[in-house]
Amino acid sequence: MEARSPGERARRNEGTTEEEHVTQEATIDPGRTAVVIMDFQVGIVGPYASNPEQVVERAASVLAAARGAGIPVYHIVHRGGPFEADSPDVEIHPGVLPIEGEQVIRKVRAGSFSTTGLDAMLREDGRDTLVLMGVATSGCVLSTLRWGADVSYQLVVVKDGCDDGDEEVHRVLTEKVFPRQATVLTAAEFAGRLGG
Length: 196
Hints:
Blueprint: H1 6-12, E1 33-38, H2 42-48, H3 52-68, E2 73-78, E3 103-107, H4 118-124, E4 129-135, H5 137-150, E5 154-163, H6 167-177, E6 183-185, H7 187-193
Parallel strand pairs: 1-2, 1-4, 2-3, 4-5, 5-6
Helix pairs in contact: 3-7
């Protein structure tokens, strides 16, 4: 059997398959897009990011661009275990604090969908494209991307708005795994798509 690239296989298949996502570029329409920023909490960013200052800076730039374009932002925070309500570790990092009107949603699992009402909120608001950022890439970002792809969201991952304690895992996910189901951009590329 002749070997084919994932893109060639996707073009040959009919219907919706995981492989089709390889060649589909997400369209960032501000009226249909939402930013989902996950686990940017004091007790997570420091211990679980390889470059905490840089990831916070890049995520903040994405938030500024999205807000400027009228794109809603959903802040997902992890609770449970060491992340109890009265612990300073649960606080959202000061570099990416929510502004008035932005949703803060508590979850108790790695992904942002299974223990929250996020899917219903997004669909009620007419959002079918998600821009994902989070710490860690191999935790909340991977879990949320997989679930989002399974329920047919268009997905964008801001690779420098994500970080992981293992730089090689981050690289493999953002360069090899995520592009099969998402458009992978830098923070600057995201802002450029919005004309910023």
